[in-house]
Specification:
This protein has five helices and six strands. It is of the alpha/beta class. It has a single domain, classed as Alpha/Beta hydrolase fold, catalytic domain (Rossmann fold), CATH 3.40.50.1820. The chain has a six-stranded parallel β-sheet, with helices on both faces. Strand 3, helix 3 and strand 4 form a beta-alpha-beta unit.
Amino acid sequence: MPSLYLAGYGNSEPLHWQTLWRKADPDSLWLDHRSWERPEADEWVGDLARALGDHPGPWDVVAHSLGCLLVSDALLRPGGVRFRRAFLVAVPNPTSPDFPEAIRGFTDPFQVKLSFPTLIVASRNDPYGSFAFSERLAGHWGSRLVDVGEKGHINLASGLGAWDEGRRLRDGFLSG
């Protein structure tokens, strides 16, 4: 089953693991947004609703950073968004003082309960979402949590390339 890729703030660069995985999965769907640098929750949720209207699910989601908050925000809005499973990497804490000021309207993910399987992949030194935050969120959502050690925000700056460890985690999780 192809996956729906949800990138975070600023989009995923050409050598980011998420972009590389998507290129290797030609039947997948990449959600684009008009503004990657000044994300507005209502606009991003609308983009997702339109994409899923054109490509009904349920989908397996591969989300990074703000893309993870898009998953939870979409569930708070009317519209019948359906996900089968979600692989969530580096979930940021929108109430953290380090959360980028340019991002507007995304809600605290603790306001939603998830009704589908999720796996949260977290780093011990993520500047946007502490490991303790990820532990609490995994408990709230009923998610499985994987500790990948100290890998920063698990992005291009982390030097992961195609991130084979993550791909194995994703493949194992999405295969059931």
